[in-house]
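Hi F.,

I've been meaning to write this up properly since the lab meeting, where we talked about keeping a consistent format for the predictions we share between groups. The idea is simple: the sequence comes first, exactly as it goes in, then the structure tokens exactly as they come out, then a line or two of notes. No screenshots and no reformatting. I'm using this chain as the first example so we have something concrete to point to.
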Amino acid sequence: MSSTGALSRSHATREATITTTMTSPPMATAPGPLDRVRTLPSLTGLRWATAMLIFGHHLMAVNYFGGNAGVVWGVLFEAGKTGVTLFFILSGFVLAWGYKPRQTARSFWWHRVARIYPLHLVGVGLALLAAATLVPEIRTDGAAPLVANVFLVNGWVPDWWQAGNAASWSLVCEAFFYLSFPFLIRPLVRASSRVLTVVVVASLVLAALAPQIAAFAPGVLSSASTPLLRLPEFVLGMTLALMLKRGEWMPLRLSIALPLAVAGYALSEAPMLPGTDIHPGLAGTVGFYALLVAALANADARGRSTFLARPLWQELGRVSFAFYLVHLLVIASVSSGWPDGHPELPWRQAVPLALAAFAVALAVAWALHKLVEIPAQRWLLRFDRSRARVQPAVAREPAEAVAAR
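Output, unedited:
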């Protein structure tokens, strides 16, 4: 995946917070069913950590740092684009964890619209404003790709994948995941442990084969942005959530899963198999990220919440969807005064500039979260006819995310 294509990676949202009205998780340490556990706060905090990887990657892509500092920053954050992979796994995991069998598909879809659409529309509006003023290079050529972005289908046409708000390409994937979820979750819930294990293996294999599939597909596909080729990451998250919730599988300890996730981060930059477009390193990235998500969820579910569950991380995690949608626009706007929008500064000047972009992006995201995301979501959920039968998601419903990411 090129660094240019990575300018939009990530996504989505507070999807790691389920609901906050259930009883406290059990303190057991042995494997066992976790049907009564609803809150997974460490996954909310993980969303913010993931957003920071994507933010760091986009600072690299826009060349805030020059010289040796730019080289070091590139080594650290070239793989930051895989933060969207983590968002997609989180999205599948959290939605499957919070699955309500009595909820209709229509109700589920309306909750998803209420969750992502208000901020998405604001993000498109801000992108159009930035394109008309400070960042003309992100202007969308033609009405068709812009309309496609508004309706979250532009990612199906590779040439349009960054139309409108460039960051919202991942929402196109999430929209497809959400559309598919009611049809995927029912057979997975009924599946045996053996079948779920096969699904896990197949998801990892498909992740490695995605670039090869895109290369040989009769149509024009992108392994990075075509929703169908990113679906295995979402399905993997769903499957591991169901296995953990049933008590049929005990994840690795966090002390092991975290170093493996770091290794997965590095593996995303490993070369493809010689003479092919098969990317086994990407399967390692997806697999190790999924193990980290499961390890954090297991810690929360068994009463051993991590530092990611602390209040500050929770608040930042809830703002992460808004932050993701605006951060690239802010990065590009802040750097627009330099030639071609690429500062390439020594680290002593680049660090303050990067901190300024971060502060502006966080302030805008916080305002959008409080003034748009929460009230719009609450208002839209009033129109869910099944809300009297199924407890509605409110401001802290899972995103994303994807995150939304």
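Notes:
The chain has a mean pLDDT of 88.
The radius of gyration is 20 Å.

If this format works for you, I'll send the rest the same way.

G.
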